[in-house]
Write a structure and sequence with these properties.
The complex is a heterodimer.
Chain A (H helix, E strand, L loop, with lengths): L2 E2 L3 E7 L10 H8 L5 E4 L6 H4 L2 H6 L3 H11 L3 E5 L10
Parallel strand pairs in A: 2-3, 2-4
Chain B lengths: L7 H26 L8 H23 L4 H26 L3 H20 L5 H13 L3 H18 L5 H29 L37 E4 L11 E2 L1
Chain lengths: 91, 245
């Protein structure tokens, strides 16, 4: 993981399965992102985060886990995104 | 005993002694079956054992010292009774003194820590356990602390029994789970090895002018996708080894 000083380091964590059509929704989402003055980090965690259910805990507002993730990763913002919880145009 | 007369009174006493022994044995087995070593039942153990020892000792004293054996056995029994009464009520009395109560609480607190750090956890987890107790402002930690405080108060009031002990073990296991979860999350970050720090080269599927299907989420303003964002309270330190300058 590489952080950059002088910019906002933003980690984006998306929980999404691989679709049958070969479209990877999280990569499609990353394609939409315009970094601008920010530095986007898209694979902050290992996939174990999802299989252990920690992503779900963080998505539902577990402050302890979010605090640990922010402290350990040194990122400025942690964006959690679950396309299964909302209806996306490409889903 | 062989020299005593086998009159009616002597036979009557022997029969009563036999039945007394039988009932005493049955009551002892009944108490043992109720697991009197747990909780308040353990207090039933010592009077039974003391009384048994007193009967045996008294009989022996009367046999070897017929003149003073009975008196000696009586005073020994009285001393034993006084010891048991003082030993029973002393904790209720002594915990009224504030310094003694605090000292007992500190000692019990150390006992709690010893139990906590021996719940099959490694050194890093033990350190985290201490840090979590000292530093965490999480609501879960606050709840844990409140429950531990209640258990300490129960100790001070002399109401700490098997149920409280079981509750304490449950709390410590919950405590350990929280620490383990945090340690796992740190592990996932530190070993992720991620190097991507910009946007993906994969082009977007939908451009800004791309027509959207009616009824889709993007067309429905009432259900916008709302990712959750948490900002860090502290800015990045320039001495961080992960930082690129």
């Amino acid at each position: 993981m590489r952080l950059k000083s002088g910019e906002r380091n933003i980690a984006v964590v998306v929980e999404t399965p691989y679709s049958a059509a070969g479209i990877v929704p999280d990569q499609a989402l990353y394609g939409h992102l315009k970094p601008g003055q920010a530095r986007l980090i898209t694979d902050l965690f290992k996939h174990d985060l999802i299989t252990h259910g920690y992503f779900n805990d963080m998505y539902h507002g577990d402050k302890e886990l979010v605090g640990v993730a922010l402290d350990a990763s040194h990122v400025d913002y942690l964006i959690r995104f679950n396309p299964g919880a909302v209806e996306l145009p490409f889903s | 005993m062989e020299n005593e007369p086998a009159n009616e009174r002597w036979i009557h006493q022997r029969v009563w002694l036999r039945w007394t022994r039988l009932w005493y044995g049955l009551i002892f087995l009944w108490a043992a079956g109720l697991a009197f070593n747990l909780g308040s039942w353990r207090w039933a153990l010592w009077p039974f054992l003391s009384f048994a020892a007193f009967l045996i000792l008294g009989s022996w004293l009367r046999r070897i010292e017929p003149r003073i054996g009975g008196t000696l056995a009586f005073f020994l029994g009285l001393l034993l009774l006084a010891h048991n009464v003082v030993g029973t009520w002393w904790p209720f009395f002594v915990t009224r003194f504030p310094y003694i109560a605090q000292g007992i609480a500190r000692w019990q607190g150390r006992a709690d820590i010893v139990i906590g750090v021996n719940l099959a956890c490694d050194t890093a987890l033990q350190q985290s356990l201490g840090q979590y107790a000292l530093a965490s402002q999480d609501a879960d930690a606050a709840n844990l602390k409140a429950e531990f405080d209640a258990l300490i108060a129960a100790r001070q009031m002399g109401r700490y029994g098997a149920a409280e002990e079981s509750r304490e073990r449950g709390l410590l296991q919950r405590y350990q789970q929280l620490i383990q979860r945090s340690a796992n999350l740190r592990h996932m970050i530190s070993e992720s090895g991620c190097t991507i720090d910009g946007f993906s080269p994969i082009p977007p599927l939908f451009g800004n002018n791309q027509p959207r299907a009616p009824g889709s989420a993007a067309a429905d303003n009432s259900k916008p996708p709302t990712p959750r964002v948490d900002a860090k309270r502290v800015r990045i330190k320039s001495s961080d080894p992960c930082l690129i300058r």
